[in-house]
Structures are given as structure tokens and as C-alpha cells.
Amino acid sequence: MKLEVISEHPAQPSDAPPILFVHGAWHGAWCWAEHFLPYCAAQGWEVHALSLRGHGRSEGSVRWASMQDYVADMAQVAATLRTMPVVVGHSMGGFVVQKYLEQFTAPAGVLMGSIPHFGSLPFLLRQIWGQPLAVLRIVLTLDLRPLVATVEQSKRAFFSADMPEELIALYHARTGSESFRIALDANFLDLPRPGRVQTPLLVMGAANDRVFPVREVEATARAYGTEAVIFPDIAHDMMLERDWQAVADHVLGWLKGRGL
Predict the structure, then answer these.
(1) Predicted confidence (pLDDT) at residue 104 exceeds the cutoff of 90
(2) In Å, how far are 5, 107, 207 from 88, measured between CA atoms?
(3) For the chain, N or C: smaller number of CB within 10 Å?
(4) How far apart, in Å, are the Cα atoms of 102 and each of 21, 81, 152, 203?
(5) Closest Cα to residue 23, out of 58, 10, 41, 1?
(6) Starting from the edge strand earliest in sequence, which strands make up the sheet with 5-8, in order?
């Protein structure tokens, strides 16, 4: 399958492993290309972001795409790189990274505002309470899009109150549909098994995250034997928020601290 991959390379070649970024639900490789890819490349890293099947400009359909389909997409791209990459996943992409690392090794992994290791059932219950009509539309259409169908829904889910409205509208216009099957996998069909993951992980969250709150990020960190790093004054889309650079700097600093 032909998958969209957006890449940036440093001015000088480096022996450091490449970094592969995996987006969350409704997003695509574009969310990393906005800030993270050019910034990390300027700091000397080879970086790549893929769009999972049916997202961005990738082939395929999101309809009934499973978590293992997304893991296969990630593995397909990783296999094309010069060496096994560091893997970074945001939100649903963090869940994909967790499942990927059950099967493959990596120099290191990063979870950013990830679906927790115990799944997204608490998130689903919050949506049933807060957006019952949207949840009904999901059941009728078998598409998760109704949760973020409007600019206002995207703002509430992904961004801080001080995020410029024009940027929210721009980013919302780039979002798309998401697999209904993923909701099933992430709730009970294909939950992560942290005991199978040997890769060192950095687990990060956002203090103002209304999708996966701090307590869930911290629980995931404990499951992987580490402590969560929580960024103040940032909401769910950590790579697009005003303070995205602080997030990027922490990731790169952590990798360098591990000798990568």
C-alpha cells in the first residue's frame, strides 16, 4: 500500500537513529510537518511522519481499519528507513506505538497524550455524557468523525482557549474520518500488553488535555515503569499548540540523554 511519508533531513548526516512520528485519530502526517519535522531536522535529526491508511494522502480506507492494520502501516514505513527508528506517537498514534512495540524493537519510544494502556473506554463514556447526539451519529454512520465534525468541537477537544481561531479553523479543515473498528480495538478487542514492551519509553501529557487527562497519562506511565512528564498550559494537540517547541525540546533532550 502506498502511504504518505513526509520527511526532513538535517544539513549534516548524523549517526543518530531516525525518528518516525505517528499521528492520532482524524489527523495525518501534516500535524507533524507543521512544526516538529523542520525543527527536529534543524537540530540534526532525520525525521519522518507517515499518514496511516485512509488518512492524509495515503491510499486505503479508514472504514473498518483495525489497530493491527495501522501497526502494519507503521512497520511498512519503518522497514524502509536506514535503521530502526525511534517511534513517537500522539493520541491514537500512541496506542499504535504501544502495539507496534509488542512486536518490534526500537531504540526508544515516546507517547504523547496517548490513548491509555487500559484503553479508551473512559473517553467513550465521557463522550456519551457530553456529546450523546454525536455518539448516536457514530453508531449510525460507523465513523468517528461526528466527535470532531465542527470547528468548535475540534477547539474543545484539541486546543487551548488562547489558540488563534484562524489556526484552529485551518487545522480542523485538514482533519478527516476515523475508523469505527479502532474504537472497538482501543476499548476491548486489542488492548496493549505493557509486559511485552522492552523499549524504553518517555510518556508525556498535557495539563489542559480534555481528551486523555493527566491521571490517565500517569497511569500509562506507571504501567511502563516510568513517570509521566506533564506540560502546563498545553492541550491535547501538543505538536500544534503554542508551546510545541517545549515539547519538541524535551523529546530531543531525552533522546540525547539516552545517548541517541
Answers:
(1) yes
(2) 14, 11, 19
(3) N
(4) 17, 20, 36, 16
(5) 58
(6) 5-8, 47-50, 19-22, 86-90, 109-112, 201-206, 229-231
C-alpha cell belonging to residue 48:
519522518
Is 83:104 a contact under the CB 8 Å cutoff? no
How many other C-beta atoms can be found within 10 angstroms of the C-beta atom of residue 86? 24
Say whether pLDDT at 13 is over 90: no
Of the pLDDT bands very low, low, confident and very high (cuts 50, 70, 90), residue 112 is very high
Q: Strand 201-206 to strand 47-50: parallel, antiparallel, or no bridges (unpaired)?
A: unpaired
pTM above the 0.85 mark?
yes
> Which residue shows C-alpha cell 450523546?
132
Cα distance between residue 173 and residue 175, in whole Å: 6
One-letter amino acid at 20 equals L
Q: Is 110 helix (H, G, I), strand (E, B) or coil?
A: strand
State the Cα–Cα distance between residues 50 and 242, nearest whole angstrom: 23
Question: Which cell goes with 124?
Answer: 467513550
Percentage of the chain lying above the pLDDT 70 cut: 100
Give the C-alpha separation, 155 to 165, whole Å: 9
DSSP 196-220: G--S-EEEEEETT-SSS-HHHHHHH
Positive or negative CA dihedral for 58, 112, 91, 239? Answer: negative
The residue assigned the cell 480495538 is: 185
